[in-house]
Amino acid sequence: MTAKLIQEQPRTYVLILETGDEIASTLKRFAKDHGLAGSSFKAIGALSDAKVDWFNWQTKKYETAADIREQIEVLSLIGDIALHDGSPEVHAHMVVGKKDGTAHGGHLVEAHVRPTLEVILTEAPEELRKVHDPESGLALIRP
Fold first, then answer.
1. What are the φ and ψ backbone dihedral angles of 25, each rounded to 5 degrees?
2. Which of 36, 70, 115, 141 is the most buried (most CB within 10 A)?
3. What gap in Å lies between CA 83 and CA 4, rounded to an integer?
4. Which of 44, 63, 59 has its CA nearest to residue 109?
5. What burial letters (b/e) apply to 103-122, b meaning 16+ CB within 10 Å?
6. How far is CA 136 from CA 65, 106, 139, in A?
7. What 3-state DSSP class applies to 67?
8. What distances in angstroms separate CA 95 from CA 6, 47, 131, 133, 136, one per listed residue?
9. What single-letter DSSP state applies at residue 137?
């Protein structure tokens, strides 16, 4: 991955992920290395594989929506990074397109870049923190 600061206030970066980079772990590492306590991002590119989930409200668990093991296009990737127990946590939703034109989407679990992913990441003006929500069982951003 390569990165460049393109704006000072708010800090905004362009990140170029490369073949083999895993999206969520790369973004998490970048946030930790740059002291980002809250950010949002958007991206487009292409992948060699992706797994996305959906949240089942009845069971309060994530279930697999799609597990794709072929070349796909990232049609839309949006998300945020917030602190959970003092460490950055990535939360992202993604829609990908297959060669036949069908689209699949959901909560990003894991995806590997091939050949590139172009990310614009912007720091939030205030720290974002996730806390446990007893109703859903999830760690959610709370102001």
1. -70, -35
2. 36
3. 23
4. 63
5. ebbbbbbebebbebbebebb
6. 19, 17, 9
7. strand
8. 26, 12, 27, 26, 24
9. -
pLDDT tens sequence for the chain (143 residues): 999 999 999 999 999 999 999 999 999 999 999 999 999 999 999 999 999 999 999 999 999 999 999 999 999 999 999 999 999 999 999 999 999 999 999 999 999 999 999 999 999 999 999 999 999 999 999 98
Per-residue CA distances from 130 to 16, 21, 103 (Å)? 27, 26, 30
Task: Tell me the residue type at 86.
Answer: G
Q: Decide: helix, strand or coil at residue 7.
A: strand
